[in-house]
Design a protein that fits this description.
With 452 residues, the protein is mostly beta strands. The chain has helices at residues 2-28, 188-192, and strands spanning 87-107, 110-130, 135-146, 157-172, 175-183, 220-230, 235-242, 265-275, 293-308, 322-336, 343-354, 362-371, 381-393, 400-414, 418-431, 439-451. Strand 13 and strand 14 (400-414) form a beta hairpin.
Length: 452
Amino acid sequence: MTKIHSHILGGAVVLSGLFASELAQAQDAPAPAPAAPPAAAEAPPPAPPAPPPVEAAPPVEAAPTPVAAPPPPEVPAAPPPAESPFKVTVGAGFRSGIRIANPNKSSDGINKLNDQYLDELNVELRTSGKVTDIVGWTANFTVDGRTRAQASGGPVAFQAQALDLVGQLDFKDEFHVWVGRMLTPSDRSNFSGPWFMAPWNYSGVLDGYYGPRGTEEVGRETGVVAWGDINKGKFKYYVGLMDLDSNFGVLSKPGAGGMAAQNPLLSARVNYAFIGAEPGFYGSSAYYGGQDIVALGAAFQYQKNYAIPGAKDMAGVQGPDIKDNLVEFNADILAEKKFEAGTPGIEAAYYHMSGDSRGFNDFFYVMPTFTTGEILPAKGKLNALFRFQMAKTGDGDAKATHTIFEPSVAYLFKDYFAKLQLSYTYGKTKLDSGGDPTNKYQFIQLGFQIQQ
């Protein structure tokens, strides 16, 4: 900018000097002598004086081009507050069932359906939390109402107990270590529980549960489990060392001190979803059209020198304990496919157990299902199923075959979070040596479930 102004000023000075010089020369030159006028002519009037020289105006400096002011610096947005990993989650569940049956009266060898009683009244409180991104915990509790029959004729008695008491090290999705009292890594039914399966009751015969070891304490055992969730639930594995509480405070033999002879239960499971995904520790036996799923699972259990108390004879004398190496294997499959008209599905499982302390020899069930879309009032669905079960138990002349037929229909207010279910169960037991069925039974059950 300085160079431009100096050139303009220099040019103006040069021009001003030249103009002033010309004016000065004009003023300094002598005026020429006037010519003699002709005779008898008037003298011409004198010439007017020359105007004074006009001074050149000083050069005007060009105004500088305004420069835009730089924008104010942007103030960086304050970062969002870091989310605290410390959090607590609370949930609850309610189940109640009414059974219509009369075990005290029968017709044609089967009990009548002319009585009713509350066979289930259960509330669960479920809490869990994270202390850091890695360290967490779970504490679930249950309050169970026992029926009048179970309370020896008195009013309903309630019992509160712990379900899950777990300390968790969640290093990554692919590797977790949990220690405490928790579900035994075994079959799909045990990971689902009655809360997350399509039928109202567990699989089983004679109104019991025929399943893997380590499920006698409402499906739980005490121990440590390493597990992982690979590819967001496509593949899961579990390896557990369970039944560790059976070693505490029990003598291995009379007069001996120290720990018991009961060995830990090794329980392992793998699960692969060919279609869909099943992330997390727990599982489900029904998705009610929530996702397409085809998943296959298998589990293996081994317990060395597993001991169970011996039976009492007719005189009430306690027999010797039964002890042997127990081996159990099971496999299960779940498949559901959603169509415009609804969601058909099927679930099936097979179990085999060996050893003198086994609870059964072989057991299987197969269960086709169908779930409608949200076509009912309150956006409800209908789920219909038919479960067939068969078990083989005993040795020699005591070998028996147990079968159960179970049709069921459920109104789903919100899948397994709120449902009303009606089931009919017919079962019988028949000795393999021949003869008529030694036991037949039937009952109708109406159940109501809420959880969140």
